[in-house]
Amino acid sequence: MSTIRHVLLDADGVLQDLPGGWYAAMEPYLGERAREFLHQSWEDELPMLAGEGEFLPLLEGHLREFGVHSPVEQVFADVWCRIDRIAESFTVVDDLRRAGYGVHLATNQERNRAAHMRHVLGYDDLFDVSCYSYDLGVAKPDPAFFREAARRIDANPAEILFVDDNANNVDGARTAGLAAVHWDFTQGHTVLLGLMEAHGVRTGSVGRPPSSPAPRGSLRST
Fold it and tell me: In which residue ranges is the amino acid composition biased (Low complexity) (predicted)?
């Protein structure tokens, strides 16, 4: 087994959460039709996750179809940019860096939500290499996403441990030769530290008291 030198982390469900969930965020605009609207929007957004086309004009059209006349920028901010950073996850990021690991981001995002994460949430300054699907031109779980991530990190895939809350993404990473674990923040961070330690990743924090799992608000796993 190769020595792990880098940790590659998913965003939604691992590093960040949408408090209350996507449906609750959309309900002030659409009530009981929020679920229908979001699933249609997510389906149509898929090409944008790979950098093909622009999401906001598409979202604006969907809003008009559903009778919502609020500015698209307002709806996007209230729903897509309603993000809470998970403090315990970023403590793990800091612990990994102090232990000498490269710490990187791997997330499926269209360019507008990615811009919010990069510049408003400050992710550009928090990770050594950030791999956004729109920028890579391919989305998880395609193994090509992970091969390109490894190239940008400048590491052998076997030297990278990937963490994601979506089992299909974990499978895609393993197909590309990465070590990978399936975890989300509701399991608690002591579980994450144990999973990483099983791959030889030690931060010196495995023995700390477990955090209480929080109710999961993010219903969309990418």
Answer: 204-222
Give the pLDDT confidence of 37-57 residue by residue, as tens digits.
999 999 999 999 999 999 999
- Give the separation between CA 145 and CA 57, rounded to whole angstroms: 26
SS3 130: strand
Instruction: Give one DSSP letter per residue of 13-59, joined into a string.
Output: TTTEE-TT-HHHHHHHHHGGGHHHHHHHHHHHHHHHHTT-S-HHHHH
Q: Are the C-beta atoms of 10 and 169 separated by less than 8 Å?
A: yes
Task: Report pTM.
Answer: 0.91
pLDDT in tens, 90-119: 999 999 999 999 999 999 999 999 999 999
User: If pLDDT is split at 50, 70 and 90, which confidence band does 206 have?
Assistant: very low
Alpha carbons within 13 angstroms on the beta-carbon side of residue 60 total 8
β-bridge partners, 163: 9, 181
Residue 127 near residue 153 (C-beta atoms within 8 A): no
> Which domains, ranges and CATH numbers included, belong to the chain?
6-17+84-198 (3.40.50.1000), 22-79 (no CATH)
Q: Which helix (H) or strand (E) holds 107?
A: strand 102-107
Sign of CA dihedral 147, 149, 153, 157: negative
pLDDT the model gives residue 163: 98
